[in-house]
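agent> step 3/5: call structure_predict on target 'Ca-activated chloride channel family protein' (Granulicella rosea).
agent> reason: downstream docking stage needs a structural representation; sequence fetched in step 2, passing through unchanged.
tool.input:
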Amino acid sequence: MRPLLSYMLLCFTAAPALAQTAEAPLPTLKLGTQLVTVSALARDGKGNPVMGLVKDDFTLTQDGHPQEIRYFSEGSSLPLTLALLVDTSGSQHAYIADEIKASQTFFHAMLRKPEDRATLVQFDNNVLQLQKMTSSVEDLEGALVHLNEPHDSALPNHGGGTMLWDGIWLAAQFELGKEPGRRAMVILTDGGDNGSRFSLGQAVAEAQISNVALYPIFYGDQFANDAVWHKDNLQAIARITGGRFFIVSPWQPLSAIYAQIASDMRLQYQLAYRPPESAPKTYHRIALRTKNHKLTVQAREGFYSP
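tool.output (status=ok):
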């Protein structure tokens, strides 16, 4: 029998305003004191990753004030925790077979170390966890086939058919937020939301609290009425959280996008700094740059103080 939603019904009945003040601990790197960690990619003018940089090649500010980078490494040895969220609403049915096929290879590419783990979640009129967090590629592959199956809801239908923002909020809060190391969420969707209890802003805030980089992949009709708006939203949540936005097309199939995400994970720089004292649950803006102004940096834009 398919494992259904492991999240508590309470999550859906709680006031949405609580999402922005959730008491999830700020992810830190344990180096004897609390540090804010930042995963980053540097890219040249053609978008290619640039390796070989050192700490002194970067500048970092919090709320406009320079900060000392206290930890730096090229290439990450930290474990990776990944959530793959798949939109299985009616508008996505035509793409599910391709998503299943490509995702089998993706899990092999992403889970390269024994401590790397992933979970599989689908969302439509509810949010269902098809595979709990595991390091077993075989278990994840086995769960993928359930994306094509009808399901009986374990939770009441709240009147919508695509609970995208709820899916992001729940996966960040309950599956990724307390995991060690790097955290990423890959989301296959056309960007539409209908029926979520949490808003776009609350979903992004929870991802920031949990230090989760969002990698939304637009898979759908680019000429649909709301496509431009939906793509703009997906691009924004990727930029804010330090992830990356993709569009599936004949020139960029899903398998190629997955390969790019896997490469990103391998080539990340890891940085950390000690933040100034601040009031709890305060949002702070981070700006990570390179001294070479021809390069751009992909990194999260802020965090919430614990």
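agent> step 4/5: record observation. The chain has two domains: 36-75+268-304, 78-265.
agent> proceeding.
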